[in-house]
Amino acid sequence: MSENFDERKDLIQPKKETNRKDMVKNVAIAFLSVMLVLTFFSNTIMNYTLPQVATVQIESGSISPQIRGTGTVTAEDPYNITVKETRKISGVAVKEGAHVEIGDIIYYLEDKESDELVKAKETLDTLELDYEQMMFSGDVSSAVISNVRNGKTASYDSYQAQVGSVLDTYNAALSADNAAQAELDYISNLMDYEKAGIDYNTATPEYLIAQATSDMTKAANNGDTDRVAELENFMAELTRDKSQLSTYSSQQGYSYSQKISQATEKKAQTSAALKEAERVKEDQLKSINIEISLCQKRDKITEQKEKIAKLEAESVGASVKSPVAGTVSSVNKVAGESTSADETIAVIQVDGKDMTTSFSVSNSQAQKLKVGDAAQPQNAWQFSSNFKATLTSIKNDKQDPAGKKLLTFKIESTEVTPGQSISLAIGERSQEYDMIVPNSAIKTDTNGKFVLIVKSKSSPLGNRYTATRADVTVVASDDKNSAITAAIDDYEYVITTSNKPVKAGEQVRLSNE
């Protein structure tokens, strides 16, 4: 039994050793895997922090140092076709770019009166009705009616004389009426004054009589007969004075009543004369105003008739024809649309007139040119060999007079119309070079011009890219590319753009990876 146990013990011991070795191996594999993952992600994170660059391979090719620009063609003294009335277009006879001769039809029109002519006739009807209603309203004299109907128009001097006459009469009547009223007021006031004096004088005897009567009663009671007799004589004298004053007052009253009656009658006469003068003045002024209004209405009717006659004379027939020979540069209407008075409905580039175009260039570019230089269309395949563009002027650009020049070209071509955009090139012909790079790849610092070349280096985790400086000499350039010479291979890749500044020796990542 002991022997069997030992045998089983020997069998169990190797199995435990095998399990321990597997565990160590698994731990090592797991550790290496974690390290690998961490290394991968650390490199990935680092790559995303690197400047991202775009590159282009150095190639051979041509450099065209020509000056290029695009401008809109304008016509020198283009002929604008207009109509003087509103008409509806029934058809268009030509297309833009077509050549027309004098008398060629441009548009067909509906055969009816223009809106302006119809409206002018309606206005005339209204003016004539208003004129006739005022003429025979009953407020106009026969003399005025005759003058107006006969075409007579009084001068302002005549009106001024008429107004002056009635105003003089009115002012004289007003002065007379004011004088009559003043006289009446004076007599009335004088009568009141004298009556007050008479009334005062009349009251004095009455007072003295009353006093004497009292004294006489006392004397009679005292038996003073002499005093009584004296007072009776005094009272008799006072009674006579009172009677005389009463008679004088009555006489004065009659006299002033007569004077007031006469002044009142005179005032009534001047008032009537003033009222009549005022009526005459108002009638005269009203008559003059009506006459002036009627003359104006009559003259407006005459002007309106002349306007209608002119519209009828200028009325376009069933079509609009070209009055000049040339190329139709624009047709502004289509069938069904209406024209407006004096609206440009077509433009013709008259034969023999120049077309021009302009665009701006830098001062350095302009220095390479002179007036008389010939230019070619950039898209030459679109034009025939008859196309000709000549530089006619080099002037300061008003938008940037210090930095730019405005080039103006004369265009000679039957294939070009005003309003068309055209791109021209002027200057030297293109030449072939071994190394061409985009202008954006050329860098400059205190040491001169250089490019940044991308160098690649393999690693266990992929390729690493580094920017390397290469000094260059620019031998020619145009608006897009530059030809260079440098101690580099012609198959290298140069950096053109980056999302952040890049220095020589820095690691970068490519935008397409």
From TrEMBL:
Gene Ontology CC terms, in alphabetical order: efflux pump complex
This protein's name: Multidrug efflux pump subunit AcrA (Membrane-fusion protein)
MF terms (GO), sorted A to Z: efflux transmembrane transporter activity
Keyword Transmembrane on entry: yes
PANTHER family: MULTIDRUG RESISTANCE PROTEIN MDTA
InterPro entries hit by this protein: Single_hybrid_motif (IPR011053)
Parts of the chain that traverse the membrane: 23-41
Native species: Butyrivibrio proteoclasticus
